[in-house]
Amino acid sequence: MVRSMPHLDVSGAAIHGNSEDRDPAILLPNQSDNISHLALDIGGSLIKLVYFSRQDNLVDADKTLLGVSNDSSISSCPITGGMLHFVKFESWKIDDCLQFIQSKQLLRRSDSLSEIQNNAGNVLIKATGGGAYAYADLFKDKFGVCLDKEDEMDCLVAGANFLLKAIRYEVFTHIEGQKEFVQIDPKEDLFPYLLVNIGSGVSIIKVNGDGSYERVSGTHLGGGTYCGQGMAMTGCESFDELIELSQQGDNTPIDLLVGDIYGGGDYSKIGLSASTIASSFGKIMPGKKKLKDCRPEDISLSLLRMISYNIGQIAYLNACRYGIKRIYFGGFFIRGNAYTMNTISFAIRYWSKGAAEAMFLRHEGFLGALGAFLSCEKQIPVGAPQSISNAKGGGFKKAYHLKFKRFCTKISSVMQRSRS
Amino acid sequence: MDTTSIPPKLKEEIKVEDEKGKDREKDIIAPTTSTMIHRSSSRPQLDLSGAAIQGNFEERDPAILLPNQSDDIFHLALDIGGSLIKLIYFSRHEDHLVDDKRKKTLKERLGLSNGSRRSYPILGGRLHFVKFETRKINECLDFIHSKQLHRGGIDPRGWSSEAPNNDNAVIKATGGGAYRFTDLFKERLGVSLDKEDEMDCLVAGANFLLKAIRHEAFTHMEGQKEFVQIDQNDLFPYLLVNIGSGVSMIKVDGDGSFERVSGTNVGGGTYWGLGKLLTKCKSFDELLELSQRGDNKVIDMLVGDIYGGMDYSKIGLSASTIASSFGKTISENKELEDYSPEDISLSLLRMISYNIGQIAYLNALRFGLKRIFFGGFFIRGHAYTMDTISFAVHFWSQGAAKAMFLRHEGFLGALGAFMSYEKHGLDDLMAHQLVERFPMGAPYVGGTIHGPPLAGLSEKISWMEKFVQKGTEILAPVPMAAPRTTGLGGFESPSSKGNTLRSDDAALNVGVLHLVPTLDVFPLLADSRTYEPNTIDLSDHSELEYWFTVLSEHLPDLVDKAVASEGGTDDAKRRGDAFARAFSAHLARLMEEPAAYGKLGLANLLELREECLREFQFVDAYRSIKQRENEASLAVLSDLLTELDGMNEESRLLALIEGVLAANIFDWGSRACVELYHKGTIIEIYRMSRKKMQRPWQVDDYDLFKERMLGSGDKKPRPHKRALLFVDNSGADIVLGMLPLARELLRRGTEVVLVANSLPALNDVTAMELPEIVAEAAKHCDILRKAAEAGGLLVDAMTNIQDLSKDSLSSTPLMVVENGCGSPCIDFRQVSSELAAAAKDADLIILEGMGRALHTNFNERFKCDTLKLAMVKNQRLAEKLIKGKIYDSVCRYEAAAG
């Protein structure tokens, strides 16, 4: 069956907003068609939503629904045309997500040509993550929407490849609190790389090129572990609250350090400094310490270190195994938290003896959703002329080019500001 | 040991009273200048100048040492960990020296001398492994004190109190507690702890175990243990993963050469710490115990949870794979109290074990290491933990790598500390010189934590009696946790969870290691690396059950014989009961956990029974029966010899082999035969058996053997130079079966070495008894007499002393050597050094009887011609092994391999 396809043009995509924003919106200056404007990544603990909008039409009331902090990027969009928005919800609050979709009228734009319809006339939405299977019925019942399932790994990799290739100021290192952007030359030093996606669990993927990758490893100690154990022990109600707590924590009353074992001295013979953690939570066991004797802040920090450090180590060992130098960390566990990134970075540097560096992505949590969003282009290559054209003609493209020029100047000035 | 080779040495015989008030003679080597001589030798060793008297067969009895024990040698080492103290001590034990004429002649004949094989003597002894809980450190101190381990053992005459140097005594110790308890040891025992580096000790301990103990390493998959034979020459490099509070991963390249390459902070301490915070458990064991009843799917987010019950097959993740440990506790609005501690504990255990397995595998991969050994207190023989780790390694390596565990894993550190003594003399101890034995308490205490030591036999018996009252509940089959199929969730669910309720290392016992420096590998084995003595595989549970029944049913009869052999006194009865209980307990333990004592074969089971008898001081249960049968057989020997001499060579050879097979019917270990005895006299049975000898036998290579012996046509083959005859039972078997065959070989100019047990086992003839039997037989036969004289078995007073050496050495000798065992079977990896020496010139081996030719060695090949002769006195074995029936005969001949 030949379908009329909308066209996604990601050329010239760039981050909207300044370098400190998290999950910033992405401008698609060359986007001419009205495209499939919604894709979902329904994970174990979070639902990630990427949608495209022509203009900023958010009202303040909607913002309260957005779990996290991308207000600024969405609120002030100076350029009409194309913009990708990134929103997330906790999975168990799926109703909020549905409500959001409804209130934004993401499925019901009368002028839209973008919804790809299946034979039965149902609207299809690109979706990935395990929840795309688990919640398929719910979407169908509530909206009459079919979730068009995309493979999770495909999406992750596609999302990451897109970000690494197309978006400047996406990648950064984070060492002892210092963030530093890294410029990647897509031709020279992109592939192969290791993508460590830390969601509830962790997937470690070796990416060799576009669409060419292998899930080489993973670990079950991930964000879900941190959140699950942390909430159980501290009474926190959310991941963010838990992270917040950790900021004021001190892990020394909880963790057994090398110094604790060797009477404050280093065990230098094997290269362990006194402050190295010998055993996470190891100080609990000999004492009579109970849960109520421990500060929730300390517990949260100790857990965070345990998990971040472990992920860093396993990632490094896998990088080692395949002789890969670049390791990118993504997924919702990191949440731009400086301490988490520091710990992961430390683990990588420690085990690699400084030879490798952890790198992070600003859109860390949305790789899968972004990949799903981009997957509607699988049928028609990005930027390629359409064989069956619809109402929109070439004239529009020219107009966009002009717009893009304007846009680029604006962006570069933003960047200069952030550099200084 | 040949005392004459160590000059100049004062030999002194003293008598020591044992518990039974019986005099026992032991050779004591008193202090002399020999100390100096030893020092000058190129390698470290134990000082021989204070040879030990070992208290009988009592495993836990202290070694009795003379005070001249050199002060810089200690036999105790400690590993004081956070929860357990591991103690290793060495008690010396010399086999008493029989320096009789037989041995002397043998040495001349075989060119056997201690000096030629080893430039210094290794001391025989026993290595004991004991554990205490660290919080009960006083028990440990009492134990050391009561055995005077810190002073090198108990001195029966109270001399050691006069020895002044003990104040400066130093004990090697490792582990964190070595620092913590320094003062306590000084105060209570007056000894200093010499701290050894933990990692050095771990590696040294692991290297020792992997090299010296044959079945030390095992894999553990889905509850199944499988012992792995590690080739000593292909041991290094390996990865040693020690899971304590934290985890160290050590790449070991050789002795003393290692590197800590990795580790993780998520270890046993994390399990305990998090477990304590999340479940309020008070101890590690409690937490582990809880995990046995847990169900992690309530806690962990599984792949199936995310994918609506489906596998994510594209990347090889099944629905039950854990996607995120504790990931499920986020989404529901539940409090900590809403989750069961059991589930939390299990989930934690899996989180940590799996993670360790994964990191270990990645490191092994990184350094290209084939073997990964896991140890440390976190494992503690806990089946589920081992399964989880094994699963992780299996999962990530896609089956290419296997996690291995060590039977003595808890003792790595302590062993290493022990090895750090410069003069332990164990550096190059070989696997064949170690015999592991499991004392009577093993099935009860699991070798775990000892209370106060048992002082003597009578205490031991009463302990046994006391225990039996409570023992039934302990011996009763341990209830298994109800199997849950889904609850295990996870990575294809390791299924051994409910294996045993005892979470500590109850699953595996650690016995006493007997160091027998005189043991050797039999040099004529075709391939000693692949040699496996046991023919029957007892890992087949129905097989084990069968032998369990056979041995259990035979037990009352054995106890009767044993008690009678000791005069049927009340004391003997009490000991008999205690023996029966102890042996039954061993059997029950092994039924429950066949791998408890290491790799289990039928030979081990049969030897265990003999050891158990000896432990309760039944020196020779069949003594009087053996004597009676020997006498009856010797009475008809001359008739038999006359009859044989009347035949031509060809029919004589057949008659001889038939005779061996027929006479092999006498076996008190066989139930069927014991019943036969009630029906007739030994000679009647022999004649009946003889008559039934119809060729072809079920296994019949007689023609091959005959051709080798007599040749075909005019060609006369060269006779064998020396034949080793492994004899079986007393009575008709040796007298009417093997001796006439030996005589025929002698007549053909072949030297004959009769190889017999060192210690009694059932009615098997022993090397000690043989000279007397031969001497008696020699009365009827000149060939035997000359040969026996030549072999130093008897002295003919009629012969002039001067003539003797000339004459006897010129004629073909008949010799007797002991095989080094006290079992009805034989393991050729561990035989006496005199047998090994005798084997050097041998070109024919004759293995006789079920134990040595069928139960063991049936399928094994040798470098020389081998004849295996036996009558099968067990229906099941007959069916299984030779597709025959009871009383079928086996005559298997194999020409020299290669």
Note down, in words, how this protein is organized:
The complex is a heterodimer of chains A (420) and B (898). Chain A is α+β, with helices and mostly antiparallel strands and 420 residues long. Helices cover 35% and strands 20% of the residues of chain A. Chain A has 13 helices and 17 strands. In chain A, strands 1, 2, 3, 4, 5, 6, 7 and 8 form an 8-stranded mixed sheet that branches. In chain A, a hairpin with a 5-residue loop joins strand 6 (116-117) and strand 7. In chain A, helix 7 (223-234) packs antiparallel against helix 10 (296-322). Chain A is globular and about 65 Å long. The N and C termini of chain A lie far apart (54 Å). In chain B, 55% of the residues are buried. With 898 residues, chain B is α/β, with parallel strands linked by helices. At the A-B interface, helix 4, strand 13, helix 7, strand 15 and helix 10 of A face strand 14, helix 8, helix 10, strand 16 and helix 11 of B. Chain B: Residues 1-25 are annotated as: Disordered. Chain B: This is Pantothenate kinase 2. Chain B: Pfam families: ARMT1-like_dom, Fumble. Chain B: Keywords: ATP-binding, Coenzyme A biosynthesis, Hydrolase, Kinase, Manganese, Metal-binding, Nickel, Nucleotide-binding, Transferase.
Describe the structure concisely:
The complex is a heterodimer of chains A (420) and B (898). Chain A is α+β, with helices and mostly antiparallel strands and 420 residues long.
Write the layout of secondary structure elements.
The complex is a heterodimer of chains A (420) and B (898).
Chain A: E1 14-15, E2 26-27, E3 38-42, E4 46-53, H1 60-63, H2 71-75, E5 83-90, H3 94-103, E6 116-117, E7 123-128, H4 131-134, H5 136-143, E8 145-149, H6 152-166, E9 171-175, E10 178-181, E11 193-198, E12 202-209, E13 212-219, H7 223-234, H8 239-246, E14 256-257, H9 258-261, E15 277-279, H10 296-322, E16 326-330, H11 338-352, E17 357-361, H12 367-374, H13 394-419
Helix pairs in contact in A: 6-12, 7-10, 8-10, 10-11
Chain B: E1 11-17, E2 23-29, H1 34-40, E3 52-54, E4 63-65, E5 76-80, E6 84-92, H2 101-110, H3 114-117, E7 125-133, H4 137-147, E8 170-174, H5 177-180, H6 182-189, E9 192-195, H7 198-212, E10 217-221, E11 224-228, E12 238-243, E13 247-254, E14 257-264, H8 268-279, H9 284-291, E15 301-302, H10 303-306, E16 322-324, H11 328-331, H12 341-366, E17 372-375, H13 383-397, E18 403-406, H14 412-419, E19 434-437, H15 442-445, H16 457-475, E20 512-515, E21 519-520, H17 541-565, H18 570-592, H19 602-615, H20 623-645, H21 649-663, H22 671-677, H23 682-691, E22 699-700, H24 702-710, E23 722-726, H25 732-747, E24 751-756, H26 770-778, H27 782-790, H28 801-810, E25 814-818, E26 831-832, H29 833-839, E27 844-848, H30 850-855, E28 865-871, H31 875-882, E29 889-894
Parallel strand pairs in B: 5-8, 8-9, 12-17, 17-18, 22-29, 23-24, 23-27, 24-25, 27-28
Antiparallel strand pairs in B: 1-2, 3-4, 5-6, 6-7, 7-20, 10-11, 10-18, 12-13, 13-14, 15-16, 19-20, 21-26, 28-29
Helix pairs in contact in B: 7-14, 8-12, 9-12, 12-13, 16-18, 17-18, 18-19, 20-25, 21-23, 21-25, 26-27, 27-28
